[in-house]
Prior knowledge:
Elements: H1 3-8, E1 10-13, E2 23-29, E3 33-39, E4 45-52, H2 55-68, E5 70-76, H3 83-90, E6 98-101, H4 104-113, H5 121-137, H6 150-183, H7 197-206, H8 213-245, H9 258-268, H10 277-284, E7 289-290, E8 299-300, H11 307-322, H12 326-336, H13 341-366, H14 380-387, H15 391-399
Parallel strand pairs: 2-5, 5-6
Antiparallel strand pairs: 1-4, 2-3, 3-4, 7-8
Amino acid sequence: MSACASLVQRSIAEPGLSEVSGLFAGIDTHKDTLAVAVVDEQGRQVASREVGNTDDGFADLAALFQRLGVVRVGIEGSGSFGRAVAVHLALLPHASWSVVEVPTLMTSRERRAQVGQGKTDPVDALAIARITARDAAGESKLAPVRLVVGPAADLRALLDYRGDLLLERTALANRAHAELTGLSPGYQHQVRSLTTRARVRQVLQLIADDHSVRADLTRRRLERIMVIDAEAAKLKRQIAALVVDAGSTLTDIHGVGPLVAARFLAEIVDARRYPTTNTFAAANGTAPIPASSGRTVRHRYNPGGNRQLNRALYTIALTQIASDTEGRAYYRRKRAEGKTGREALRCLKRRISDRVYRTMLRDTESAGQPVGASVGEPSGERLATMLAVGASDAHEVRLTA
């Protein structure tokens, strides 16, 4: 055990702990430490521990869970500080537990319900464990942790890198516009934007005879914009090729191009993580929140879920509304029913969400992986076999956000 793990590790256990079976664990993750709580089916705490967020700490947790007979582990932040421990626990051979992701909002609500406890790492871990236990006894809405490996990891890395480039381009363009106001007053009547390479070249010609420092810096910014455009176009072609290689039919849906399809493949990884269209909609933020009162029956905007997926669904919805499609007809029907434009748009996004989910399930089945065989909570060796994840992939997934 490392010195760090030895310093931070502490354990509290009640008498007769080894006799308790069917326990549930919750892990509150941080950069240096992991706070862990274990509860029984009634939510009573039977163990608490804090270990280092290191390989030695992971091994200690696995030994503890095996000794206690833990059957389900909930992790908050499995995509950030909890990524490594989630991979370790999910891919551990012969593990008796499944590993699920607990949303931060659920932890916050559970903690606030316990008056007088305040907010500490052990309190958060206990809240996560109780959520995990209740979910297992109910409809099991918590999704298994997402292991981003192989093509999904490549797509996500490429999309994120391209997004960073576009953010840089926007900042450079904004700064160039600010400088051009003084360098070439009235330029906006000749070049209204810097969205294309032709327009960028046109602006370069406008300031070609200006050899001031500000003009020189502006030229550098404009040249960098053209470099970014070329690299972004190359990345788009690379992403499109990976989508084709994945055998996805998402692009058959009107409004879904290679970049949008890649976002779904990178974020969802395996649609079988979500048992129904309802759980998938809750995960992407298209499941509306009831906001009825008295005689008024309505639903309001859902700010939760994966906002990257929600943005992709929003893009598809706007594209369908702008064209003569079934989506536009559906949107107009909802408007005719008395819904506002935003409410009708949310209805359309939910409809698209259901179709995306079914399409990804069908693609999985067409690839020779029976859908019904993996819906639920695969754990340990079974999950490793299902996703064909090796030791090198396990290291890769730790590094993939």
